[in-house]
Fold:
Amino acid sequence: MKFPNPKIISFRDEVDEITNTSYLTHSLYYHPAKFIPQIVKYCLTEYTKKGGKTLDPFAGSGTTGLEASVNGYSALLTDINPLLDYFYPIKLPEFSIKEWDKYALNAIGIVDKIYDVDIKKLRIKNTNSKLEYWYPPDLFLYFSKIFEEIKKQKNPIVKKILILTFFKLSKKYSFAEHAMPKLFTSKRKRQTIQDLNRNTDFPSKIAIEAKKEIKRIDKSVTELINKFNLKKIEYYSGVDAYNFNYKEKGMVDSIITSPPYLQAQEYMRTFKLEMMWLGYSDEKIKSFSKKEIPFRKPEGRINGQYINTTRDKIKSKKLQEMFDSYFWFTIKAIENASNSLRKKGNLCVLIGNPVMEKELIEIWKVIYEYFVVEKGYKPIEVFEDKIVTRKLFSGRKNNNPTGMHSEFLLVLEK
Structure:
């Protein structure tokens, strides 16, 4: 079939009122792959009924939800990551500014309490022994004490403020490369932490940093509550977009989403350390990892002129299996979500073009072919947006070492 030529666009220029992609609570916590908010706002303004409801089945960091909330739209968010239960109540607040001021102040007071402990007298019970691998002994004991104290907190919002704060610091002061996705260590980071442990009063240093982090969170949440009359956002964490019953939650006017990219694997591994600190068992963590695309055996295969031609160019059987799994679960998850899309509602999907065995895989074409040819959706537009900033990691096996240079926004009408 003949595909349309993508229209070159800069969403940052189109939505110039958003000058900082990290404004409000968009940078509340680290997420390995985030929408820029300009794209979501563009899709809300151009392709969603004013004041209507949107859906993001791969909600991730919650960009769709936050932009919907501040711009007067309702939203339904789902994601396989169970930790969203700790992130979203702060990122998408439902409390008053008076309540929030009290929560933030209480969280700082608890940091002072945690700091004032004698490390030599600590006795930690029932901690995941695999956590010890990631820390020098003293730092492990100290963070164990911190998370023990956090679990004792009765106020759910105060607890979540502390969890957000110490998720960040426990990763920073671990052997893990905290500025990169996935969970792995390096000789450089290991040596840095060992040296710090020998030469630094780390409880004092971490306490100071924790207070700064709470103040950073406080500033962004305060700005959000004071500036906007926020819409309540409905979300479900730890769920599978492939079989979640979206239609049961009501019809939506648009879907605005960015599914995982092909070979962008081990999303849940990025959050494994945090899950262990919260007491998740290995079996529970694996149960979420097994829901990831493309780690499952597909029940069928997506076919079409473009996808079949592209599949034939891949020689490795293992990569072919990954290819088929990825497209089966991605396409079927979007189709499942689309069951709740109203007639003439718009499907907006942002995706990049990865490389597999040196072959460029234009994912948007597979989605276009399936929904236009197989499902009768009306093509509206395909945009190509140049990526302004991206993280590339040297020293790691990568079939596309220069990274993706553009992302594509596909817009279809049901």
